[in-house]
Design brief:
Blueprint lengths: L4 H10 L7 E4 L2 H11 L3 E5 L12 E4 L2 H11 L3 E2 L9 E2 L3 E5 L10 E5 L4 E5 L1
Antiparallel strand pairs: 1-6, 2-3, 2-6, 4-5, 7-8
Amino acid sequence: MNIHEYQAKAVLSKYGVAVPKGKVADTPAEAEIIAEEFGTAVVVKAQIHAGGRGKGGGVKFAKTPAEAREYAKQIIGMTLVTHQTGPQGKKVKRVLVEQAGRIKRELYLGMVIDRGLSRVVMMA
């Protein structure tokens, strides 16, 4: 099962895990409106089924709604190449616009199904 970051965060939130406030935008104009609603700095994140999006240019910090629009314009429609996509990359169709937090420490959390154990394994 492949789900996007925004879908995974919705599931986590449903079970009481704190996640940043965010909404999906299909256009740069929608990204700007979302950033205006939040009234804070935001992060504009490409939504593809692959890791390494930040290193590939698919994650941008925007201080203003106008910056959020510009970053969404750059990201939506781009072919994002990461270590997980291979050289062909994946086309970005939407972005997650999320309230930016003050990051002291950042961790990557991944979940996979271990068929041998018949369980979900979480990696950090």
